[in-house]
Every structure is written in C-alpha cells, then in structure tokens.
Specification:
47% of the residues lie in helices and 21% in strands. It has helices at 2-42, 61-67, 71-74, 88-101, 149-198, 205-235, 248-265, 287-303, 353-359, 365-375, 408-414, 429-441, 452-461, 478-485, 506-514, 527-538, and strands spanning 46-50, 56-59, 105-107, 114-117, 123-135, 138-147, 244-246, 269-274, 283-285, 309-319, 322-331, 379-385, 389-400, 421-425, 445-449, 466-469, 497-501, 519-522. β14 (421-425), α12 (429-441) and β15 form a beta-alpha-beta unit. α5 (149-198) packs across α12, α6 (205-235) packs across α10 (365-375) and α8 (287-303) packs antiparallel against α10 (365-375). The structure holds adenosine-5'-diphosphate (ADP). Adenosine-5'-diphosphate is lined by residues 300-301, 304, 331, 333-334, 336, 344, 350-351, 355, 361-367, 390, 392.
Length: 546
Amino acid sequence: MILLIMLTFVTARVINLSDQERHRRHELLRASEARLSGILSIAADAIISVDSQQRVTLFNTWAEKIFGYSTGEVLGQPLDILMPRRFRGKHDKYIGEFERSNVAARRMADRQEIFARRKDGEEFPAEASISKLMLDGQPVYTVVLRDMTEQRVAATALIRAKDLAEAATRSKSEFLANMSHEIRTPLNSISGFAQLLLEKRDVAGELRVQLRKIKDSTAALTTIVNDILDYSKLEEGRLSLSLAPFSPVALARTCVSMMSSIANRRDLSIAITAAPWLAGGSYLGDSQRLQQVLLNLLSNAVKFTNYGGVTVKITDVPGDGGTVLRFAVSDTGIGIEPAHMHRLFQRFSQVDSSISRKYGGTGLGLAICKRLVTLMGGQIGVESTPGQGSTFWFSVPLEPAAALAADSEKVSRRRAFVPRSILLAEDVDLNREVATAMLERAGHRVDVVLDGDAAVKAAEAKLYDLILMDIQMPILDGIAATKKIRQLPGAKGLVPIVAMSASVLSDEIAGFLSAGMNGHIGKPVDWDALLAEVQRQTRPKHDAVA
Ligand code: ADP
C-alpha cells in the first residue's frame, strides 16, 4: 500500500513536471512566434511564403502594403496573382531550376529586371530573393521582395538630368562653333581688304594709320574669338596637346618678334635672355600652345607697361626624368596690388573695372594660360610690386628631343618662288575677292567657282596645282566635293586640296583631313600663312622638308 502511494506520488510528480515542461516549451514557442510575427509585421520588405504547390502560406504586413491585398485575400491563392501574366510561365520554370540547383537561397532574376503586380493590376519594378526550407518533408519557398519604383524613378531622373546636361553642353559647343564661324567670315574680309589697301604704295599718312588700326582691331577681335573657343574647349576637356620637337629659344624669339612692332611703337625695349646651352636645345612639347601662353604673357606685359621694357628669361631646372623649363616674362609696368592677386588666373577676371575700361581685354587670357600649363603638367605664377612691375612665369616639364634637323625656315627662304595654278571654291563674294587679290598679287593664277559641284567639274576639266576649298557652300559642300574629286582618275584625283574655312575646331579640321583634304587654313586668313601653305603643298615631293 505504501509502495502504491509512493508510486502514485512519483507518477503525479512526473506528470506535473512534464506538464510544466510542456508549458515552458509552449511559452517559448509562443514567444518565438510572437517575435517572428513582430519581425514579419515591421519588415520593410514584402515577405511571402508558398508551399510546394506555389500557394501562398504567409503574407506579411509590408506585402499587404505594396500589393494592396489583405492577408486573408491571398492566403491559399496561387502566387501567380502577384505577378504580371507574361512572367507566370517563366516563374514556374525558374522555381523548377531553383529546385534542381540545390542552393538554399538566391537573388531572383539577377541582372534582369523583374516586375510584380498589385491588386489594381499596376505593375511595378522589384528586386527579390528566394529561399527554400524543408518543413515536415515538404518544401517551403520564401520570397523577400522590394518595391523598386522610387529607386527607378530616381535613377531615370538622374539619367535624364545627365542627358539634359550633356545636351546643354553640346548645344553650347555648337552655338560657340556657329558663332565663331559667323564672326570669322566677315573678319576675314575686313582684315584681308585692310591688308590689300596697306600694300598699296599710294596709301599714306592718316589713311595708312587708320587702316593699320582696322587691321590691328581685327587681329584683337580674332584673338578674342579664339580665346572664347579655346576656353570652352578647355572647360569641356576637349583640348588635346600635340607633341613635336621644338626649340624653346626659337619659340621665344618668334613671340618677341610678333610683339616687337607694338613694343617699338610704345617705345618699350623687349629682349630675351637664356642660358647659352639652351640655344640649340630641342624638346618635345606642344609648341603652338606654349607659344600661345608665352605670347599672352608678353602681350599683357607690353599692354600694362608705359615706360621701360619687357624681358623674357628662359631657364632650365632639372626635374624627375626630364627637364623643367621655366619662362619668366618681367615688365616694368603698373604692377598689381597684393589684394588683387587672388583674382588673377580666374576666368573673366580683371583686377578692377577701371583696368578693363582703360586697357580693354576679356579677362580670359590668364585663365586659358593656367589651364593650358596645367594640362601640360606645369605651373604658372606671378610676383608683382605695384608701380614697379610684374613677373609672370610658367614652368613645364619637357623631355629633350633629338637635335632639330636643318632650320626649315632658312631652307624655305632659299627656295625660289614658283607661280601656281589654283582653283578657289568660295561662295562668299567678299572672301572670294580678297583671296583672289592676295593670291594674284603673290603671282599665282586663280580660277574661281562658287560651289562644290562647280569645283568638282573644274577639277575634272583641268589639272590644278592646288585647290583652296571653302567648306560651307551651296549645292555641294567642301567635304562632299573633296570626296568626289578624290574619285577622279589619275593625277586629277590626287590634286592637293586645302580647306579654307571659318570652322576651326580640331574635330572639324580632323573631319576635313579624313575626307581627303591635305591641309587647313582658318579664317580670318593669315595671308602669309596661306602663301606659305600654297608653297608647301605644291612643292615637288623629293624637295619636301620634314
Ligand atoms: P585681359 O584679356 O583682360 O588682359 P588676362 O587674363 O590676360 O585678361 O589678364 C587679367 C588681368 O590681369 C588684366 O586685366 C590685368 O588687370 C592683370 N594683368 C595681367 N598681366 C598684367 C601685367 N603684366 N601687369 C599688370 N597687370 C596685369
């Protein structure tokens, strides 16, 4: 009996304990479920589970929010109702593949756009990942899905803003190219006729002085047009350097000789000093752009100096793996107040408005110099004392080049002048008149045509030594005409063709050359350069100087 009582007691205790244990486990499970459902309800992604039949078994709060269905409406329904009709077949195939792949979870439609469908039928872009879990021997698939509508809208807006910005840059460049073309064309005839008149012996006295002023003003205006074009190219990163051997001392001499007449007229001395070993030195660099920088500094020095003079000093400083050449332009001019120094080298910046009224200028020169020198990997700077003068300097790293061949200038000077027969294709009357006069004055024979089609016919009828071809012409433009001429048989198809055009951007010039032209002369035409180009292009091949 005692034994029975004890057994009953022990059994009751065991039952009581296992009840407590069950209760404890039940509580744990409840807490875990509450945690899970809490997570599911606050998750900011849709979480949807389906069974092996692809029927929805779980649909969280965020899923209700983005799909517009209540959980009750969706539970037990095929997953298909949440996707656009066109994806339904694809989805079954995808689940089949996922099943066979044996991976536990993966991103859906990696690198492809997927779309889901709301209750009201609206489709929306989504990102989703899928995972598989085995429960009681049955697979449970859970999809975590994010509505990407806002991100796509933002991305589209960004792409559109970028496209708009690019289009604005393109139209700015086109506008600048067009404006530059339109300004250059009349400038060409003004400077050409001024020069023709200046060459007449009977033009003297006041008239000659006024003509020279017209000519100088057109040169100044050409510089401004060039500066604006250069600056916009530099801003857009479209300006590239072309490297060739050059002599820095010869370059400085050219700049000084270009400035010397203005300096003389203003009674200013102008000189170059350079270490003797630099005199025969040759370096690899973009001499045209270096010349542009030096010329700019020199012309500022002359412009802002009333008494005394200007010196260019060239020195070399050893640098990493090459030489750093330093050009310093010192003047005894008005100088710059320390408070104004920070404005220099910035676009459209002059030290004060009284300067621009008195001396003119656009305030672009130094900004262009700074960008060009930076593009070359160099530095630019200034030291100045008000009332005493300034030294503007720049230094650029340059590699030495092999010694320059024979001085091409001297060789060409020795070459005898040969009159050539030239075909000039130009539709603008004034340009045609001035070019013909210049070429004939130099001793060449000129035939003129007014459009590209007439140029092709003339080139077919007669073998010219050279064709000077405007680009924008009626009926057939210069490029199309060149392509046709290049198809003519024999020597007529090989005639040198030089573009003479107000289109001066490097990609435009590259277009002329790739159409089969041999050279380019920009408008306003530098007439000496044109005559030199005629000589160069018509020189017999064996006589060519590299
Ligand atoms: P600008 O076309 O107006 O000359 P720059 O960029 O070449 O434009 O020069 C900007 C300003 O810097 C000038 O307007 C002038 O005030 C000042 N400046 C440049 N060079 C000198 C100099 N050698 N002496 C005094 N001031 C100078």
